[in-house]
Amino acid sequence: METSDIHILVVDDEAVVNINLSGYLEDEGFTVFSAASAEEALELIDQQRIDVGIIDMRLPGMDGNALILKAYHKQRAMKFLIHTGSTNYSLPQSLIELGLGEAQVLRKPVSDLSILPRMIYEMFSMDDNK
Q1: Which CATH class is domain 3-128?
Q2: What is the pTM for the complete model shown?
Q3: In whole angstroms, what is the distance from residue 100 CA to residue 9 CA?
């Protein structure tokens, strides 16, 4: 799979974080969409194929956990990375049942963004091995 074939949705209400993540991933060759809220993200998911969502947990309105559940039901092949500043965040059972684990939880600030493309490629290479 070519990098540009992978569509990523960055959801973060902090403009600086959203711009930095989106810009970095675009520079790496991914097709990137961004949203500042869960509601905006769901509209994009209705309009675009999204392969990976990088989701902040603390969003205005609907939180990141609820967004992931709704997004999964709209596009079941979608994969997720959680990007949170909360030091005490733990995955709820509903997300564990979707296959998410601690390996998909990134704590802000991520000091080395090069980890993101590697994590994304690993998600797809695991699918290729099934």
Answers
A1: alpha beta
A2: 0.93
A3: 17
